[in-house]
């Protein structure tokens, strides 16, 4: 399965707009300044993304003779400008250099490629060997990382609230998974379909971290962006799949607003209808499925989610109930009427989403 319709003009960042909005209001200019600049950067990149959708992105293919089971990575350095892609500093097969950020980006792209290949037989983001490009040191104290439809971009963080965005491998996996969604179900980035888009990225971002660390569902921390918050910030990560709403509670960041169940679903016009907020509900459902099944989460729970994402039955404007119903169907088709199916059915029931 390739694309369900034309590409949506999606610009996806790991730090939600509501977090940067809160920081931008801080009295301390060391906090508000980087947040405001980051919001300005994001607005510019969002506009560029829409233009790319209108005029078309350049066609990118794997180099002739490139092995289908190997990534083709190129890392660029923006040198704290907003110019993309920047100066090439590392390419596939070259040795690590002295810049740890470059090395982490390279390794994270590789870890993402490997999980999709080894677990699901997928060859890169588009399933056809798409080269993986990334730019580091974007902007000045830029507080975000994003997938712009063509490549990954990482900021260095402001050092006061956020550290280097290449530190958590799940951040890299999250953003690249937006590319997988773009090339498969192409979920619309608004309301419940947008929250599903974000949740799918959190799910596979977490699975990439678990795969890299060799963790079982019971051993995983189920945090997204652990290690990204600077010392002194009251929080552990950007989001928690295990306990949505508990990732942070900080005077400058505010309190994590994610709900874990439909009872506390947030209706808002901000953040494309709360895509980074209500994603906590399907996130929690996946956590419940994975821990109920046990073992390596990418093998069964992840396979069910991947089957739904790539199976062709998921509509671009899907609601939570549509996605949940397809996971039940996928679990039954792949594993029969056993523990896996029961885990999926019970998880959606626990978060208050009805399956049809």
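^ structure tokens above, recovered residues below v
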């Amino acid at each position: 399965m390739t694309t369900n319709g034309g590409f949506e003009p999606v610009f996806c960042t790991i730090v939600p707009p509501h977090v940067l909005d809160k920081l931008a209001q801080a009295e301390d200019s060391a906090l508000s300044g980087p947040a405001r600049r980051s919001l300005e950067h994001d607005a510019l990149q969002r506009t560029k993304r829409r233009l790319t959708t209108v005029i078309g992105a350049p066609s990118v293919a794997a180099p002739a003779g490139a092995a289908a089971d190997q990534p083709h990575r190129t890392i660029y350095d923006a040198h704290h400008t907003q110019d993309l892609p920047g100066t090439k500093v590392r390419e596939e097969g070259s040795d690590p250099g002295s810049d740890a950020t470059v090395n982490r980006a390279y390794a994270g792209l590789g870890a993402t490629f490997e999980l999709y290949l080894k677990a699901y037989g997928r060859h890169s983001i588009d399933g056809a060997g798409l080269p993986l490009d990334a730019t580091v040191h974007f902007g000045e104290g830029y507080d975000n990382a994003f997938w712009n439809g063509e490549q990954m971009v990482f900021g260095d963080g402001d050092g006061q609230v956020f550290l280097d965005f290449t530190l958590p491998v799940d951040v890299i996996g999250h953003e690249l998974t937006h590319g997988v969604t773009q090339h498969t179900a192409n979920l619309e980035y608004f309301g419940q379909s947008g929250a599903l888009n974000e949740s799918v990225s959190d799910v596979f971002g977490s699975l990439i971290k678990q795969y890299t660390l060799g963790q079982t569902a019971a051993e995983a921390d189920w945090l997204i962006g652990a290690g990204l918050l600077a010392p002194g910030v009251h929080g552990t990560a950007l989001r928690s799949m295990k306990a949505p709403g508990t990732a942070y509670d900080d005077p400058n960041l505010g309190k994590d607003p994610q709900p874990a169940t439909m009872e506390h679903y947030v209706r808002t016009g901000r953040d494309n209808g709360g895509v980074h907020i209500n994603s906590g509900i399907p996130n929690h459902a996946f956590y419940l499925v994975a821990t109920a099944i046990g073992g390596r989460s990418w093998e069964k729970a992840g396979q069910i989610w991947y089957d739904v994402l790539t199976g062709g039955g998921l509509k671009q404007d899907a609601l939570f109930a549509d996605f949940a119903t397809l996971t039940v169907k996928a679990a039954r088709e792949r594993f029969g009427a056993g523990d896996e199916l029961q885990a999926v059915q019970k998880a959606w029931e626990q978060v208050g989403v009805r399956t049809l």
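Confidence is low (pLDDT under 50) at residues 1-7, 49-57.
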